[in-house]
Amino acid sequence: RYGLSITSEHEPSSTIIVSASRAGVTGTAGFIASHVSNLLLDHGATVHGVDAFTDYYPRALKEANLASLTG
Predict the structure, then answer these.
(1) What is the pTM of this model?
(2) Phi and psi for 59 in degrees, rounded to 5?
(3) DSSP letter assigned to residue 6
(4) Hey, how many other C-beta atoms are within 10 angstroms of the C-beta on 63?
């Protein structure tokens, strides 16, 4: 089981419990999803990530986020 605490100025703090060895993560190259993916990987899960690489953020930032996942 993996625990992830999420806090927002609009929502009270909450915890997500994941009990799977595989996870699908959308927006994997983004800031939040890349960190969630790293958390899952650090705990032994297999992560299947998908990202559309829209131009909302610079591609270089997204590629840097992915680099931390692929080593």
Answers:
(1) 0.69
(2) -55, -35
(3) E
(4) 11
Q: Which bin fits 38, alpha (ψ -120 to 50), beta or left (φ > 0)?
A: alpha
Give the model confidence (pLDDT) of 35-65 as tens digits: 888 888 887 888 888 898 988 889 999 999 9
Cβ atoms of 57 and 30 within 8 Å: the answer is yes
Helix (H) or strand (E) run with residue 48 in it: strand 46-50
Long-range contacts of range 43-48, CB-CB < 8 Å, 24 or more positions apart?
43/2, 45/2, 45/18, 45/20, 45/21, 46/21, 46/22, 47/22, 47/23, 48/22, 48/23, 48/24
CA atoms of 20 and 10, how far apart (whole Å) = 29
